[in-house]
Every structure is written in C-alpha cells, then in structure tokens.
Design a protein that fits this description.
The protein has helices at about 10-15, 30, and strands at about 35-45, 50-60, 65-75, 85-95, 100-105, 110-120, 120-130, 135-140, 145-155, 160-170. The chain has one domain (about 10-170): Lipocalin (Beta Barrel). It has a ten-stranded antiparallel β-barrel with strand order 1-2-3-4-5-6-7-8-9-10. Strand 7 (about 120-130) and strand 8 form a beta hairpin. The chain has about 170 residues and is mainly beta.
Amino acid sequence: MGTVDYGNSEMVPRLAACSDCPTTGQHVLHDRLIGTWNVRYINYPETGSTRHRQGEVRFGWILNGFAVQDVWIWHADAAYPVERIGTTIRFFDLQLGSWRIVWIEPAAGTVIQLKGGEAEGRIVLVGHDTDRSLLRWSFNNIEATAFEWRGERSRDEGQTWRLESKYHMQRRLS
C-alpha cells in the first residue's frame, strides 16, 4: 500500500497569503495585528472568581491577502491541564461594508459569527453566541507592541454589558 495524501500538499500553499498583501483601505484595520503575541488571559466568570492563563495568539494574512486568520492558544498549566485552541477567519465583506469574522473552537463544538469594524480607534465586533446572547469583542489601545482584547456579553440585546474576558497582548519580538 502507498501513502495516503490527505490534501495538505495543495491546501496549505493555497491558504497562505501573498507576499505583497494589501496595505490600503479596509485591510489596514487588521494589518497592525499581524504577528505573534504573548497573551495574559483574564476571565471573569459569573461565579465571581477570576481565572488567569498564559498563551499566545498569531495573526496572519491568508487567501491571497483577502482574509486574516488568527490562532488563539491557551497554554495548559496546573489549574487548567488541557491546552485550549481556536481560530478566527476575518475578512472585509464589500456587500455589508463591514468586517465579518467566524470563530471556530472545534474541541468545544463552537462556531460564532460577528461583524463590525473600526469605532473610535478600536476594532469592535458584535454578534450572537450559541445561546443567542449578544457578544461584543473589541481590540483596544492598539499600539505597535501591545493591545487589549475585551469580551463582553449582553443578555438584554445591548442595553447592559458584562465584562467576561480581558486579554493583555504583548508583541513577540523574536
């Protein structure tokens, strides 16, 4: 029997981005995030206890520069012995005039769609979670070497918001 080709030889090169990805228009919004970031994850469950984890996130252009993929990794530690990983595909939808994202976390069986864009110097995305509550994910205080990601939830269609997560990103320089 010969070896089985599962398609990776063609898929990975097609997924990778071009060497001269767009750096104008709507693409600039996420261009400043491209790279690898060390993350200090802080979650605020409704139980009141705060949870801390370390990890990383990697942003890169894909599909000839028409989309950005980011891979989020929560490292295993004594309190959380299983590594957690998920990915987002984000692209600018010309028909909607906004960025659309799809978050996928296969181990949890989660798929979430949000849309949005720049709002007062931040990147703000809004959509519904699997339980139909409203989510707001935002990238804040974006600088060349650091930014903060916030995850908020509303159970009253946006009248009030509860902070669930705050992630502190530090660009990995080497």
